[in-house]
Write the structure tokens for this entry.
Amino acid sequence: DFIKPYLFETGRIFLRINIGSLTATHRQEVSTFHKI
């Protein structure tokens, strides 16, 4: 019962990092596109 909320929190943090890296790569692509 104690592990469930812990896994949920880890999943949330992992999701946040994943979305952050996704937006970062997207921004890089957009900036490169504007440079061309």
Summary: The two ends are 54 Å apart (CA to CA). Residues 1-31 form one domain. The chain has one helix and no strands. The longest helix spans residues 3-35.
